[in-house]
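re: ur question from earlier - yeah i can do the single chain one, its not a big deal. heres the input i used so u can compare w yours
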Amino acid sequence: MKRNVVVLAEAANDIERGIDFYNAIEDGVGRYFRDSIIAER
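and the output i got, formated as tokens:
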């Protein structure tokens, strides 16, 4: 069953900050972080 997910602006900002945080540790890790969140729907 397919569901639509609404991401609030505050949550989107948190995700962007998380991506930046992980990319600061190692380039590309932020993309893995984002992809992992998306995969857990």
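The chain has one domain: 9-39. not sure if urs matches, ping me
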